[in-house]
Amino acid sequence: MSRVKSTRKGCRDVFNAFLVTLARYAGLFEFPCILATYELPNRLITFSKALSSKDYDQWVHFYENDYLFERLWRNPKRYLELLKRFNGVILPDFSLYRDMPLVMQLWNIYRSRAIGHWLQKNGVKVIPNIRYGDRRTYKVCCDGIEKHCVIAVGSHGNMHDPMDRKIFLEGLVSVVSRLEPSAIVIYGAEHKETIAKFRTAGIQTVVFEAQRTTSHKEVV
Known about the structure:
Distance between the termini: 43 Å
Structural class: alpha/beta
Strand content: 15-25%
Number of helices: 7
Strand order of the largest sheet: 3-4-5-6
Shape: globular
Order of helices and strands: EEEHEHHEHEHEHEHEE
Helix content: 25-40%
């Protein structure tokens, strides 16, 4: 299969093809594959706060407004050395809204995975963030993620509206059924009934409450 070239004579790499150099791809939409991770974060800090933090004994996450971390996609090389200082990174949580055209939802999944592949290639520990939008993305969002490893999801902002909560929980159950993760990192509110089912199935769950500052965990 031909691969995107990151260098073309007379052309700038405006779509960051260099991120997927030597990547393996999976699924119909060829998302870059992410290697399995088995470590759990001790603490979390948002990317925007990590930019000025001197406390590196924590993991960087992107469960915040997209405009606060879009800069990482625009210029990933600028932030590589900074991210290397931290314990690891939960992959970017580019927004997937149900009213987005499917192609935009797929593009944002791709962008997260492309950054993830590149960070791993450069020695950064990563936990794949599984983001899905409408029901069409439930299965494809798992493409390229290994089974039985640690995954992360963000429930923040998805648990208040009944329909948002329904879609989020349906998607989470679908993801867990397909990936059978060893552990799930949840950022935001937890749904106790669903968490209890995961725990019964032997899946460790680590919940970080959404905070404006560094987040602390509750292990279930």
